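Lay summary. Proteins are chains of building blocks that fold into shapes, and those shapes determine what they do. In this project we predict the shape from the chain. Here is one chain we studied, written as its sequence of building blocks.
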Amino acid sequence: MTSALDEVFRREVGRCTATLIRVLGDIDLAEDAVAEAFAIAADKWPRTGIPPNPGGWITTTARYRAIDRLRRESTRSERQRDSHRLHIDTMDPDHDPELDNFVDVVSDDQLRLMFLCAHPDLGADAQVALILRLLGGLETGEIAKAFVIPETTMAQRIVRAKRKLHDNHAYYRIPRSAELPDRLHAVLVAIYLIYTESHSATSGQVLTRTDLSIEAIRLGRTLVNLMPNEPEAVGLLALMLLTESRRPSRTAPAPLPTERWFVSPTRTAGDGTEQ
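And here is the predicted shape, written in a compact code that computers can read:
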């Protein structure tokens, strides 16, 4: 069950966090709620089994945990109203909070939040690091390796980026369609690094991580559908697909030493002898 839960976590944590950030408008609250939901799953699923839609179960449980937390911490009527509004909005199938306006531009929750994390108030490295940590399914150590810096330095960079977005209320500032090209580079770099980690895993018992490669290619396809005239997006998708087509050969058994894969042709000299 532990390995199955780990697989669900790697596959769903980015999407669940993206959905919760969109609904809550708060990075830390969304992260904490998703972490609590996975802790509940670790306790409950060994007894009840993994549900048919584990990502939906995690998202729903995390949302209710966030509502409970807001209610517990409410010391003013304003927070009580926020908690009540969150409960009503997310229960109403026709709800249309401000953050949902961006759905008309980018329909995929995870890709949408990637563009939100690529905020111009953050440096380029901070944008990419925040995307990878919140939405890419990568741990801080894996991100630090990609940037070739110490893990503690990367952790501080991510914390500062989250604080800056929170202080500037950036998650309530919905990017318009015209702003997406300026934020595209950070999103492309993040998707590329997700695939790079899948191609050569930083840790673990396996060389590659198919869960990350599947997600990176899915995001790449979604991005190309959103921005089909962006050559860099099309090029990145083509690169990932080409590399992915060769994945089996990287871990296949090597040819036997006695096998000859290339035989040079003989040449005939002018006197008829072979050279």
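What the prediction tells us: Residues 1-95 form one domain.
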